[in-house]
Amino acid sequence: MKKLINRVDDVLSEQLQGFAKAHPEINLHPSSFYVTRHDAPVKGKVALLSGGGSGHEPMHAGFVGKGMLDGACPGEIFTSPTPDKMYDCAKAIDSGEGVLMIVKNYTGDVLNFETATELLHDEGVKIATVLVDDDVAVKDSLYTAGRRGVANTVLMEKLLGAAAERGDTLDDLVKLGHQINNNGFFYWYCTTGLHRTCCRKTLFYSP
């Protein structure tokens, strides 16, 4: 597998800087390296936030904009973003109508978003989360905490983003998010194993 990168340690910062230069409709916040739409916070609108480990671009920064996410928190390669990054991003996009976090069912994501949610709640921010766990291939796997959140995440970001743009309330968006998650199923099969850039190793080979 070939990659166009300079230094592994600079992948996240360089890709976000390049992405922001190519897309003036988003703002990059370099202190914490999260992304928001340029007009955030949008008055009278519930804000949507998601995030996760980098390495699956254009997730999630590529889905920030009108009718989709208001903010995105990319972590390092295959690593959950930190709670302080989620906290900063949520504060930047909150208009007072509340913030809905779309969380994929990975242990690091769930724990860190939960911590950020508690911090925001303590400050009086209206905050809610919707969990995405559509991967039926690993429901009973020893290596996951239940079903992972994968392809349905994009559908949820788009559908909830459109609903938020038309003025749906935080409670309405949570209900819609559960409906989307409960009706989305994904089965993942890899023909080539994951290649870890940090250690230059392929984790497995399919026959």
UniProtKB/TrEMBL annotation:
Keywords: Kinase, Transferase
SUPFAM superfamilies from the UniProt entry: DAK1/DegV-like (SSF82549)
E.C. number(s) listed in UniProt: 2.7.-.-
GO biological process annotation, one example: glycerol catabolic process
GO molecular function term, any single one: glycerone kinase activity
Keyword Lipid metabolism assigned: no
Entry keyword Kinase: yes
Limits of the DhaK domain: 7-207
Superkingdom to which the source organism belongs: Bacteria
GO cellular component: cytosol
The protein, known as: Dihydroxyacetone kinase subunit DhaK
Gene: dhaK_2
